[in-house]
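**User:**
Make up any protein.

**Assistant:**
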Amino acid sequence: MDWERLLSAKRFGMEHYENAKKHERTEYQRDYDRLIFSSPFRRLQNKTQVFPLPGSIFVHNRLTHSLEVASVGRSMGENIGRELRKKYPGSDAHFEEIGSIVAAACLAHDMGNPPFGHSGEKAISTFFSEGKGAFLKSEVEQEGGRWSDFTCFEGNANAIRLLMHQFRGRREGGFAMTYSTLASIVKYPYSSELSGGKNKFGFFASEEDDYRQIAEDLGILKQNESPLKFVRYPLVYLVEAADDICYQVMDIEDAHKLRLLTTEKAIELLLDFFEGESRERCMRILSYVTDVNEQIAYLRSAVIGLLVGECSVLFLANEEHILAGEFSGTLIGNVSPVVAKAYGRCAEFALQYIYRSKDVLDIELAGYRIIGYLLEVFTDAIRNPKHAYSKLLLDRIPEQYETNSRSLYGKTQSVIDYISGMTDVYALDLYRKITGIGLPVV
């Protein structure tokens, strides 16, 4: 793969317009601005990251998480861009804008995630794999629909749909993002048919040809035609690393604020990333700070800085393998032994004491119930649109969602589009109203 081709400011859905003018590097920065001001991005402020929202103590939601990931991604992208410019001084590639591309992709990476955290994805998948939606399988497959798109529902693939699909009444190309930004979001660039039953794939059948167009234009190497599979776009590694860095470190800080772990344990986990003089310097600075939250905040920032540096060095050291599509694993998975061990300890602690805590499990249970019920009533409505109750339900769905699609696959997607775009509060409110638990004020 070649950087001059990989870094393209061509906009999806506006190719005829972009081809008529010289690509400007600031096009990448416009992607970031376009996302910041969008309604789907704004709705992330009321979508659970890990801990229930809202609370007396402010913890991360999808919005604050995405902003922090974008900040970390921009730092890594700028590091990479500077070094690549030194390595290829005569290249016409937009190395100086890699930071902007990665930051925009980081902003968008969670936009397709449903309400109620990661349990939202599982709730959608299990509704179709083992829940009341399983009976739709034969009908969807008989008409040529890809059933695994539903049973392996993936928020990342849904983000690509949200950004690229021309919903009713919207312009061609969806958000009309640059090819480079869109490609940077696709962590798993292959069909759900290759997901192995896991919630990891890059695009639904409905967006497969569109992603193929982008990948072929950027010169991304293809590994398989049917089912479709490409190698990763190089900047995906930076977006993924920024996400890995933020959620792992910030979850420790949030858990400390919620008193799920002691100050001593939080300091221990974060100090383990350092050794020798670096560790001594951290301990010296900690001795100057008496505020407990500031101590954790300082260590958190130090750990993030360390991980940004290591991942940047790793990317540059493996650039040739990445461009050849031969790099395996993640950047975080290849950090130095001391850092890898400390990261592993944080991951183990989070799995045992954070992700299985009562409050987190409660929000997951609620998510399963609410999302499962909404999927049940709305999928029944699209199959029986002439029923009186169905008409009432379908009137609740905004016109942009194609509930009258010609295929059951398309109709089912419209329901998932609607529900996955909801905030936690909206989904809960709608559930209460439909079930009669809560009524509008008369």
